[in-house]
């Protein structure tokens, strides 16, 4: 397994951007085995939450170990606090970056499958919202979406004030991210509900969707409501709850469930540092 840090100039963001990439690497073949041909890797684009960056998933979970077991490439970009949407005023086209440029760039850099059914997007909190929004908007690219503890920014607009203890709960933060007219933004492709409606009107093919939220998470009711909405619209969704709050222990458990849910193959057996003694006769 190779873990790479990559920096490249983004045309959509007009600056150098970083990302971590987990790439399956060939294990040494077991005695008597032949090395199997390497196919293009299935790929998960994995988005961090607010206040985070491209290092979060790698250091907060065991994603590297589980990606190796599943022969999965994982791309983890930085999204700042921009919620993975496009804001032309600041030349922050984070939606286009995630849904188009990042996919195109990584496919040129690495041996990644270009098939829709092999291309996945996921995230937590703000990144869960970003995965839903961009997984739906770019549904011709992403065949599967995994949204954990998602922040649904367009719920409860009438009750937003400046009195929230947490800055992301304040109206000023939402306006800075989505524009001054939040009601208009809610009726645009920034809102996953709007995208579902438009996709149904156009007869577009939906990605498979996995959602999860902890029972002690303040975002639980919003996640339940969106899962119910998807089911009411006859959109395929797998919804999971378990004990846990808005924390890494929960996301660590859930990302393993996500990888079990995705259409992945166990990687071929081989020798690595984790099983170096397997099959070796140590007796003299």
UniProtKB/TrEMBL annotation:
Which Pfam family, any one of them, does this sequence belong to? Esterase
Q: Which UniProt keywords apply?
A: Hydrolase
From the UniProt record, which GO molecular function terms apply? acyltransferase activity, transferring groups other than amino-acyl groups; hydrolase activity
**Any keyword Hydrolase?**
yes
Q: What is this protein called?
A: S-formylglutathione hydrolase FrmB
């Amino acid at each position: 397994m190779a873990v790479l840090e990559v920096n490249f100039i983004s045309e959509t963001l007009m600056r150098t951007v970083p990302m971590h990439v987990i790439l399956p690497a060939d294990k040494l073949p077991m005695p008597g085995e032949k090395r199997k041909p390497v196919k293009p890797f299935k790929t998960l684009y994995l988005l961090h939450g607010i206040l985070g960056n491209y290092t979060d998933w790698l250091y907060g979970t065991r994603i590297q170990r589980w990606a190796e077991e599943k022969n999965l490439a994982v791309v983890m970009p930085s999204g700042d606090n921009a919620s993975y949407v496009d804001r032309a005023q600041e030349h922050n086209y984070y939606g286009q970056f995630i849904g188009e440029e990042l996919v195109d760039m990584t496919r040129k850099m690495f041996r990644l499958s270009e098939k829709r059914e092999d291309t996945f997007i996921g995230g937590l909190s703000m990144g869960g919202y970003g995965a839903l929004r961009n997984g739906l908007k770019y549904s011709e690219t992403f065949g599967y979406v995994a949204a954990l503890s998602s922040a649904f920014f367009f719920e409860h607009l009438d009750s937003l004030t400046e009195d929230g203890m947490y800055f992301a709960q304040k109206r000023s933060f939402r306006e800075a991210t989505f524009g001054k007219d939040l009601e208009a933004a809610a009726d645009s492709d920034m809102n996953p509900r709007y995208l579902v409606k438009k996709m149904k009107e156009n007869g577009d093919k939906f990605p498979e969707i996995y959602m999860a939220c902890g029972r002690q998470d303040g975002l639980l009711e919003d996640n339940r409501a969106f899962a119910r909405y998807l089911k009411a619209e006859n959109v395929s969704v797998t919804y999971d709850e378990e004990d846990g709050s808005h924390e890494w222990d929960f996301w660590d458990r859930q990302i393993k469930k996500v990888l079990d849910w995705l259409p992945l193959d166990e990687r071929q057996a081989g020798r690595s540092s984790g099983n170096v003694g397997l099959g070796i006769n140590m007796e003299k």
